[in-house]
Amino acid sequence: MQRRDVLRLSALAGAAGVLTLDPMTFTQAEAAGPADGHEQTKTLSGHLPTGAPDFVYVPVEVPRGVREIAVSYSYDKPTVPAGTQGNACDIGIFDERGTELGGRGFRGWSGGARTEFAISAEEATPGYLAGPVKAGTWHVVLGPYTVAPQGLDYTVTVTLRYGAPGTPRKPVYPPQRAKGRGRAWYRGDSHLHTVYSDGKRTPAELVAAARAAGLDFITTTEHNTTSAHAAFEGLWGDDLLILTGEEITTRNGHVVALGTDPGTFIDWRYRARDNRFGQFARKVRQAGGLVIPAHPHGTCVGCNWKFGFNDADAVEVWNADFTPDDEVTISEWDNTLVAASRGEGRWLPAVGHSDAHREPQVVGLPQTVVLADDLSRTALQQGIRAGRSWIAESSKIDLTFEAVGGRGKHAGIGERLKVGGAEEVTVRLKVSGVGPGCSVRFITDQGQLYGTAVPDSGTLTAEWRTTASYAAYVRAEVRHAPADGGASGIPGPMAAMTNPIWLGEH
């Protein structure tokens, strides 16, 4: 089938489909006996209509003797009517091992952050994986994220450079444990980007920002690539643990794979209707990671979470500056706590991350504070999975939150205070380091049952008495003053919040 015939069928392939074009063929004969330094270049142009498949593959027949493969691309950005999506097209590449979903052929992805990249045995453009350029069929993959009504015109140029293959460099990954402080509360930000996907900070700049924010750990989570896993060499230390992960960026939502084994690639080429997410959530766990849906009510195209939460380990309820979509996520999350309080399934702990890409976005706004036995991947993940964590807008804020019953019974964040329904329980919050105009709220399965202002000093100890029959759980929020002075009844932006303490025998 000719490429023009294949393109006629693209609208029928459906938005979740795959389109493979005719191959771009290079031969050694064309190179007139490829010598060191010789190169060949070929260009392909085409058109994708509205309704084009999610992924368009350009096969590239790579002969022996290639030292480096370089790719560049461009596409048109026509004017579109107000309220209509224009053209946006991502790019990546798979090597001779193929494009099978979840297979071994992945060699890099830059989304729409770059217009060109190169791969050799010794080095690769950020977003891509260095390694030998072996003979076989490689695939440049285009991802037409949105297509204008006029369609999308594209051009792909591939250059093969011949010569000695070079010696691959063995990657050096961060250790999975830092010195720490024993069992303690550790502050971290586990949704971060650098130049290795669509961020602007280098790994060194990111680490400097993390230390300035008072963080104990971070997780590198580039969009759809593991290329940054080996980019932090020499940047960790006794004071900072660097975990590896990925932001799996699908067309139906993003998910943070937190703390996967270094070098583990998790595929993203599916939609909710394909019923494949569970397969890759299991792969995240098999690689030692946590599955955390990110900004579930985000407003960007493809950001809304459509996969459900059955395969999640936690949920990112607060992403970057606190905005209305975070408010919606927290409200939805709180509703799930009510069901869990009745024993109807497990509950998902809440976490918060900055999703920082560039200045002036603040690393550690917000940050998740985790109670862990030590500063290690395993201990932090255990703390997050158990809900022994709270979220703050900065390291200036500190808090403790507990529930106390009779006879020395005590429970902290994420734990259960096993008391009878009528037994009196004292809920106590100590908070410091918050700004002026803040207030504290205690939220239960009935909603807010207690609230008080924080003094201008920014320090408060608040107590409230209840019973398990009156409140199945209680969690705390520290809020800034609402912009409208409270006229709308909508609370102000979050300064800090906790996971719940559960009350009752079951």
UniProtKB/TrEMBL annotation:
Q: Which InterPro entries match?
A: PHP_domain (IPR052018), Pol/His_phosphatase_N (IPR003141), Pol/histidinol_Pase-like (IPR016195), TAT_signal_bac_arc (IPR019546)
Q: Where is the Polymerase/histidinol phosphatase N-terminal domain?
A: 188-252
Gene3D superfamilies listed in its UniProt record: Metal-dependent hydrolases
Under the GO molecular function aspect, what terms does this record hold? 5'-3' DNA exonuclease activity; 5'-3' RNA exonuclease activity
Highest taxon of the source? Bacteria
Q: Which SUPFAM superfamilies match?
A: PHP domain-like (SSF89550)
Supply the SMART domains for this chain. POLIIIAc (SM00481)
Name listed for the protein in its UniProt record: PHP domain protein
Supply the source organism for this entry.
Streptomyces violaceusniger (strain Tu 4113)
